Amino acid sequence: MSAARDAILGRIRAALGDAPAEAPVPRSFRRAGTADRAALIAGFAEKASAYRVRVELCGAAEVAATAARLLGERGHVRLAVPAGLPAGFAPEGFDLVPDEGLDRATLSAVDGVITACACAIAQTGTIVLDHGAGQGRRALTLLPDYHLCIVEAGRIVDLVPEAVARMEPAVKAGRPLTFISGPSATSDIELSRVEGVHGPRTLDVIVVRDA
Amino acid sequence: MSTDTPVHEGPGILVERPFPAAARDALKDAQLRRNIGKATTTIRAKRRNAVAEMPDWEALRDAGYAIKRDALRRLDENLLKLDASVTAAGGTVHWARDGAEANRIVGDILAGHGAEEVLKIKSLTTDETGLNGALEARGIDAIETDLAEVIVQKGGDRSSHILVPAIHRNRAEIRAIFKRELPDTDDLTDDPKALTAAARRYLREKFMTVPCAVSGANFAVAETGSVAIFESEGNGRMCLTLPRVLITVMGIEKVVPRWDDMAAFLQLLPRSSTAERMNPYNSVWSGTRAGEGPEEFHLVLLDNGRTAVLADEAARDTLNCIRCSACLNICPVYERTGGRAYGSTYPGPIGAILTPQLDPSAEAATLPFASSLCGACYEVCPVKIDIPRILVHLRSKANAAKGTTGEALAMAAMARVFGSERLYALAQRAVAVGQRPFVRDGQIRALPGPLAGWTAMRDLAPVPKQSFRGWWAERKR
Ligand code: SF4
Fold first, then answer.
1. Are B296 and B245 in contact (CB under 8 A)?
2. Contacts of B289 in chain A (CB under 8 A)
3. How far apart are alpha carbons A50 and B102 in whole angstroms?
4. Which of B72-76, B148-152, B327-331, B468-472 is least confident?
5. How far, in Å, is the centroid of ligand 1 from the Cα of B229?
6. Measured between CB atoms, does A175 come within 8 Å of chain B?
7. Is B287 helix (H, G, I), strand (E, B) or coil?
8. A2 phi, psi to nearest 5 deg
């Protein structure tokens, strides 16, 4: 095995010597929230809005129509969509481009992208992608300048630890995760916040109340 | 310690001048003081709100502290597990005893791909090893992709803050740098939006074409082989997903045993760092995956003096640091001097304890003296590093190295006093009496004998006649 590896492990063992084991880790912080569905939706909407995300609420039957209205207002026509996007999520009358290995130039040139998510966090207004069905590979939600994410209310958890627990099987299966809290942002110039340095400049979210 | 002593070849940690001299110059720069002052005050207030929202903040800090302590106690085991899990996920793991070795590994991988350019995510670890310079020597151009790092790099400058490296530059200066260094900037205004857009255009082209990238890591999870990067701009996501080859250089102290540990750090880091509930993007990935992200992933595990810190039980907690920068933003010394005066990758209170442990030069040994021991850094630290206690410990070590001086004795005594509540209370009372002859207009301007160095650079607020503890005890009655 590598000499560097052996050397470093040797240094570590020498450094620790026979130091006693550490006390068990106290995990007395909140592991789960108590909010009901209405409160989760309201909490998520409020926290996401704080990052200048536009949040729309609708019923399961109205998702496509709500998406169409939002896209119409934004003036977006050509949208990339991942494989496995639920049929009810696709707005009619738009140029939807399925991502079957779209090249980077195409991804950069579309008006935006529509995806689902793996879960969302009310406490922080975060959406979490595990890049499974309906979410697409990581570049899909990165290169286009606009991201419309559809969040089924049943996927909203209250606290960060709940999201971590819910994502555990995905992580153990080797899937990547992306936690998204608002659009790309920087405060590097005199601490004034500017959106969209490299990722999407705009993030819209539709929360599906009864799904 | 093992017979194999850690080597410090890292050209990045390079304290060229003793802190007092560097600080004296920094204090003369009014613009710098204004910028840093504004930044730290803003972030401080925001952080207070973000933390106040969390009823279980103290429990989270306790968990964060204990997870790191435990992870470090079983560091060998965790690293071996990480090595195995990353390898099983299709990555390649390398071990580097020091900065020079890490730079060599990265350089070799890049050279093997014939790379002339490499994209970089802002990383303190590769700054510590001086990677950019080492690559340049091999004809490889490192392109920083964090907006602030672009400003620093193109300005031929040095970072002044862990989190907002270009905080010492105002918009007019940034406009001048961009006009000089970036293409198509003839009509560039100094509006932050316009400046950001110019950087976006320049970098987008790089992201689309450069096939190799280098990053640091915020955390790695031993059991799953996952590496995590927290960021704001999305340049991280670009570097982590678009290039064909990704190399991550990570200090060995960044490993935690279990995925569940992220439940604590996903809360502690953003609120302490950018003072947000969550930063815009967190990426987690394990090895490689067909059709997703880089085809080749290398993880370089770096020691570079960390095992020496591990060996010093009184200073070991230094390795808990998750590089949030909360201690910088709260520190009165940092607020006045800015980060560059510390002369190292790691400024502020954490720099004052970490740098001298990684860099054994006499110049770096002056850093633990750059503190008023006010204790604010300990209070804000999300992983409960008792920085004041470690400062005092390192001071007595530095003084012992210089030989037995009056100051050395004083510091050794102080280390004992700080370690005991009873002695501390006694000392406070003794000082309140003993200082009387030196107080003028409510300030101590010069101390006698071996303590003169203490007041050459700062006025000292006298210890109040009544200690806080005394006042508290009385109030409670
Ligand atoms: S020492 Fe603590 S407060 Fe300072 S940067 Fe590290 S984790 Fe943050």
1. yes
2. 174-176
3. 41
4. B468-472
5. 17
6. yes
7. coil
8. -65, 140
